[in-house]
Design goal:
By secondary structure, the protein is of the alpha+beta class. Helices cover 34% and strands 17% of the residues. It has one domain.
Length: 59
């Protein structure tokens, strides 16, 4: 997930569709909160999401 977001950011694409990112990551989760459920909440410091989109927080 992070790799996809980084590659999108690197190529100048600000946001990606969350469902597509999860699908491409072969995640069975339907939301980032599920995909990162084994992690502490620090992932929210680097991943932004809302309105069906997601992005890498760079600032």
């Amino acid at each position: 997930i992070i790799r996809q977001l980084f590659e999108a950011w690197e190529s100048g694409q600000e946001k990606l569709r969350t469902a597509a990112v999860l699908e491409n990551a072969e995640s069975k989760a339907s939301a980032f909160s599920q995909a990162f459920s084994g992690c502490k909440t620090e992932w929210k410091n680097v991943v932004g999401y809302g309105n069906g989109n997601c992005w890498l927080k760079t600032e």
